[in-house]
Amino acid sequence: MKKSSQVVEGTFTEPMVLQDGTTIEPTGNKFKFNMVTLAKWYNGQITEEYPYCDNDEIARQMGTD
Predict the structure, then answer these.
(1) Which of 5, 21, 29, 49 has the fewest beta carbons closer than 10 A?
(2) Inter-residue contact 57 to 35 (CB < 8 Å)
(3) What is the pLDDT of residue 65?
(4) Distance between CA atoms of 6 and 50, rounded to whole angstroms?
(5) At residue 40, what are phi and psi to the nearest 5 degrees?
(6) What angle do CA 18, 23, 26 make, to 5 degrees?
């Protein structure tokens, strides 16, 4: 298992489609958050991936909470 960490930042400018098919309209808010990904590799390809981030913090920054 390998770990990768990154900072993700941007502006919420496009509708976001949720798993249940509903959408959240963009707010124009900027966001910046930390993310960690654990991945299992085999023959140079990812076979399993587990991304982790603070969804509540992302929603707060995007103005969707």
Answers:
(1) 21
(2) no
(3) 79
(4) 14
(5) -105, 130
(6) 115
Angle at 3 between CA 8 and CA 46, to 5 degrees: 95
pLDDT in tens, 8-35: 999 999 999 999 999 999 999 999 999 9
What torsion, rounded to 10 degrees, do the Cα atoms 47, 14, 9, 29 define?
-150
- Residue 18 tokens, joined: 């949720």
**Tokens 């489609």 map to which residue?**
17
Q: How far lies 16's CA from each of 1, 5, 24, in Å?
A: 30, 23, 5
